Amino acid sequence: MSKQLLEPSWRSPFFWIIAGLFGIVFTLEFSTPPDYVMSYLYVSPILIANSRLSRVAIFQIILAAVILTLLNIWVPPNGEIHASMVVNRLVTVFALILTGILSDRHHLTLQTLVKQQAKLQAQEKIMNVREDFASTLAHDLKTPLLGAIETLQAFEREQFGSIQFKQKIVLATMIRSHQNSLRLVETLLDVYRNETEGLQLRLAPINLATLAEEVATSLLPLSTSRSVYLTLHYGDSEFRKFLWVNGDDFQLRRVFSNLLANAINHSPRGAKVEVVLETESSHQIVQVIDFGAGIKPDEKPYLFERFYQGQSDRQASGSGLGLYLSRQIVEAHGGTIWAENRTPQGAIFGFRLPALPYSSQDII
């Protein structure tokens, strides 16, 4: 917090410090010949006063220093007044005034910085409160969602009596909606947990090719409902490859699911989504290619930011957390994730992970 500016008071110790300094300079100035300029020493009380006194009080101190400096030309009387004596006094006066102006600006700058720092601290505190609130709310929402899903599934299994076919369709829709909400809540909790505690990985040798096939199979209902075809390639090779990495199976599945679901949801009906798996020197590379609307240039730098949804058709729906969580997971594995437009149409979302040494890749 900034210090409160004071008005000079004879009861204040600070007042007597400045008065004492003025007295010392005054004694030196008027006890030496006018050719010796001691008024430069008035800079000390001016600078000291600038840190505590108001601008009006500082102006009064500078004015007093200027008057005493010029007065020493005539008092005490020392005979002839030389031009050099007057010039030296005027230069001193200019230096005192300039010192006061610069110190005042410096003081104002410090005050502005202190105010901005206080605002930033207040904003940071508000953001922390918001994040704590969001994390607590997401945690509290998880239990009722799980209960609702279990209840709806019990109705679907006809544990509370027989239901009609149309009712089953409605129940299935409600279950999917609640499951989507549960996944969103879990993603939100994971994002906050990763930021505060760091992402805890359970590392083991993992074949990315097997992982990609399993995730693609699990997303077949989604791709079928949107008439999007999933294909898997191994670059220029026609044969199945093994892309071994040291990774966390659960977390890397989430990356594949997020990227594939993102590509499916933003592809036109009848289009296809390609998963390309390649090995490049010491890294394994995964690319998810779609034939959708592509990425706008001004949105590209923000695609993997938290809660960023953008304005293009690609990010028209969703929480803006899937890509951000994917970036957290990939970077925790020592890899990189990126997005780029595909020529002539579509987009590529890819990531690169360090490959296991060749001896570790023999595990099949």
UniProtKB/TrEMBL annotation:
InterPro entries (UniProt xref): HATPase_C_sf, HATPase_dom, His_kinase_dom, HisK_dim/P_dom, HisK_dim/P_sf, Sig_transdc_His_kin-like_C
Domain Histidine kinase: 136-357
Keywords, sorted A to Z: Kinase, Membrane, Phosphoprotein, Transferase, Transmembrane, Transmembrane helix, Two-component regulatory system
TM helices/strands, residue ranges: 14-32, 53-75, 81-102
Catalytic activity reported: ATP + protein L-histidine = ADP + protein N-phospho-L-histidine
One GO MF term: phosphorelay sensor kinase activity
EC number(s) stated in the UniProt entry for this protein: 2.7.13.3
Protein name: histidine kinase
Lineage, uppermost ranks: Bacteria, Bacillati, Cyanobacteriota, Cyanophyceae, Pseudanabaenales
